[in-house]
Amino acid sequence: MMHFMGEEWEIFPAGGATGDAYVAQQGEQKIFIKRNSSPFLAVLSAEEIVPKLLWTKRLENGDVITAQKWVNGRELKSPEMQQTRVAKLLSKIHSSNELLHMFMRMGNNPLAPQDLFEGLLARLSMQNIKEPNIKLAVEWLRNNVHQISSENLVVCHGDVNHNNWIVSDGNLYLIDWDGAIVADPALDLAPLLYLYIPKSKWQDWLLEYGLVLTASLQSRLHWYMVAQCIESILWHWQRYESNEMLKWSEILNNLLQEKQFHSTQG
């Protein structure tokens, strides 16, 4: 990376799970550089969903390097996820036909609930997690998977954690698109609502987003959140992060105790 940028630039790791993100600085100038970032970064930039894309270059080894404007922003705090601007930006993303068409042109197939469920089963079969609620949750997901469908498929971010929402000079961005997928918008909405929005405010928040909280939507949110809990328990189990595993286990336990769960199982 240093050779590619030139000796006049200082390069620092920017963190992240992949280790492919860097901050490049030359005097007062700073840019954000990433190796093999999302192929539809240009669309995200054009729609002002992420900081401005400055340039893209392909290296001799086939890697693609992108540079974005560096923004002196901060991550949203958990309570700020209730804000209208979060609902509006997520709605803009989910409503973007250009983003959807580009994603589909790249050959990405939509993630159906059955595919998500079978993926979880495959991962669980390779692990030895003795979490008492997982078996119950898996059976509930299995029994209800055929009732979870949506004709509206959108580009979902896949990780709407508050750490991925950046505010800078009054502008809000949603960053880190490596896990994006075409799916039911409930895949994004479920963790956002369950983790950050009090249930008493769901209806108002969703109206800002552009949806009415119907019984069908509630069922889909519940199903995707149960799946999210299992996914997160697996993720943290592989990394020996017991405290995070415990947090997600508690969320899963609460979901299993909801009236909706008991009224629809089997």
Automatic annotation (TrEMBL):
Residues passing through the membrane, by range: none
Superkingdom of source: Bacteria
Domain Aminoglycoside phosphotransferase: 35-209
One Pfam match: APH
Descriptive protein name: Thiamine kinase-like enzyme
Origin species: Evansella vedderi
Taxonomic lineage from the root: Bacteria, Bacillati, Bacillota, Bacilli, Bacillales
